[in-house]
Amino acid sequence: MDGFQKLSRVYDSLRKSAKFTAAQNKEEKSNFVDSVGELVALCEREGGFIPRYTTDVPQDIVDQTLADMNNYTYKLVTQDLGFGQQIEDALKKIQIQKEMEASEENDVTELDDFDVENYLEEQQDQKDKDLLVEIGDDVRSH
């Protein structure tokens, strides 16, 4: 019996030193949130009442997006002073390009037989010159 009593006292002292007793666990338990209800109560106590439905958020996201886009476009055109000039420059470049394309279409000339004969004669003359150069190179190399 003496051995059992000594072991029992050692066991109790170890539990107290390791804080395994129910009284010690209750003191530390108050620092933790164990359930969702306690979490909600903590939030309401610290931050105020949490409404069931929030109504300050716009319900129609499409209308809000369109309003944001209109606001962005308005600010872009009115506050960015260089934007209007960029639009005008781009329109001028497009107009100049269209005029150049129209003038190129009007400048097309048709070739007649005389032009074709001159072209063929120039090609033959060039062939003859190339042949003479090749013959001259062969003669010099021998």
Describe it for me?
The chain has helices spanning 2-17, 22-29, 36-47, 61-79, 81-106, 113-141. The longest helix has 29 residues, at 113-141. The protein is mainly alpha-helical and 142 residues long. 77% of the residues lie in helices and 0% in strands. The chain is elongated and about 135 Å long.
Keywords, separated by commas or semicolons:
77% helix, 6 helices, 142 residues, elongated, mainly alpha
- Rg, Å, rounded: 48 Å
What is the terminal separation in angstroms? 132 Å
Helices and strands, in order, run as HHHHHH
What best-fitting shape do the alpha-carbon axes yield?
Answer: elongated
Helical run tally = 6
Biggest sheet details: none
- Structural class comes to mainly alpha
Number of strands: 0
In what range is the share of β-strand residues? under 5%
Indicate the low-confidence ranges by residue numbers: none
Mean pLDDT: 79
Q: Give the fraction of residues assigned to helices.
A: over 70%
Brief sketch in words of this structure:
By secondary structure, the protein is mainly α.
How does the SSE layout of this entry go?
Layout: H1 2-17, H2 22-29, H3 36-47, H4 61-79, H5 81-106, H6 113-141
